[in-house]
Predict the 3D structure of the following.
Amino acid sequence: METQRLRIAMQKSGRLSQDSQALFKSCGLKINLREQRLIAHVENMPIDILRVRDDDIPGLVMEGVVDLGIIGENVLEEAQLIRASQGLPAEVKTLKQLDFGGCRLSLAVPDDVAYTGPQSLAGKRIATSYPGLLKRFFDEKGLNFKSVMLGGSVEVAPRAGLADAICDLVSTGATLEANGLKEVEVIYRSKAVLVQAPNPLNEAKQKLIDKLLPRIQGMQQARE
Ligand code: PRT
Ligand code: ZN
């Protein structure tokens, strides 16, 4: 049976957690967060908050297991590319781009390597956690490369002899610098987004969303 409470997925712990929580709070949600719980009940509205790994959020929303989710566009779009290639549902409704979680997905090479454009990396090994977005970039340029999939520690791959270049998220650039790498190409710019499951929700849930959205809008405008 479909739950009557609106279900929203957020990252349990990581770079989007605090801002997501602050967003809910500023919308008037009173959340009883007990550290280890998967589900947190909102006390003053029919809403449950699911706290999961960020990578799980796109699938949960696309499958309609949750009604809303807050996720980085980088993770969302990567999941869409991979899921579509596997014939899985990959649609979401994007309700709002949010004003946090900003970063870019960039190509970086060792400091001493000459780079004159994407063709410099043709046929090379590139380490990344974002094979879909990376492949799309090289496909658009008509270039080949070898994808080295790494779930973490991408920035050490060149030094470890695992790859010639990396494609990883960057915000300040300090991590690249600390690893002797230079950013040579931005392939995707990302922020956090609020997304909704593709199928229509029941009237009560949709009304609740329609009530929450202007609050988010208003809060972001006040912060600009
Ligand atoms: O455990 P879980 O799977 O939920 O978390 P996670 O470790 O996969 O993700 P997390 O919390 O690191 O990031 C969540 C989201 O925050 C990302 O998907 C992005 O949308 C966004 N975001 C914003 C970032 C960064 N900025 C960022 N700088 N995500 C990661 N980084 C990492 C980057 O991978 C690199 O290791 O920070 C390092 C670079 O930072 P600078 O400042 O040194 O350039
Ligand atoms: Zn993750």
Notes: The mean pLDDT is 96.
